[in-house]
Amino acid sequence: MMLLEDILNLFYEPFIQYVILVVILAAVAGVAARRGRGPKRSGAAKRMERMIGDIDKGRDVRAPDVKSRQSIITGMFESKMRAVGLEPTTESGYIPVSYTPLARFLSERGINDDIVSAITSGLKEEESEEDVRSIIEAAAGTPDVDLTPTEIEKAQELAVEEWTRLKGAG
Q: Are 123 and 135 in contact (CB under 8 A)?
């Protein structure tokens, strides 16, 4: 009992009260400093702010380095191949987006994989055969797609076949 009274009497000493006050203030200051930093920003947000700052100051803006969709897909494919103990081939230089007959046909004619992917994705949304044919017709009208009328007709036939398979599977 005497020990407890001695400890309680220490709290009445001005020096001890001062030490306790300093410790409490330091803890409050630490918490306030931690909260004052604001939310953490991602690397992309920092790059965007830097680009905006460059524009405001009239400097040349350097475009950020970005990976193409194809390189991201290739990297994922290769890492999964290695994870199961297989070594992916480097002969072709890239992994094709799709192996459907329509995708192969369009890729063989030099059409960008992003356009091929957009066409094959669009097939799933269409309601009729005419709509499917119009997707190929619309793609053929873009500057990046250079198909002859015969190739357009063949691509339309392949697209209709693929659309029919997709509708049957869904």
A: yes
Span 94-130, pLDDT tens digits:
545 456 888 888 888 888 877 888 888 888 788 888 9
Average pLDDT over residues 53-80: 79
CA separation for the pair 69, 113 (Å, rounded): 9
Nearest to 128 by CA among 167, 76, 78: 167
What gap in Å lies between CA 40 and CA 60, rounded to an integer? 27
Alpha carbons 29 and 25: distance in angstroms, whole number: 6
Instruction: Give SS3 for 148.
Output: coil
Q: Which residue has the tokens 């599977």?
A: 169
Query: In whole angstroms, what is the distance from residue 78 CA to residue 84 CA?
Result: 10
Indicate whether this model's pTM tops 0.70.
no
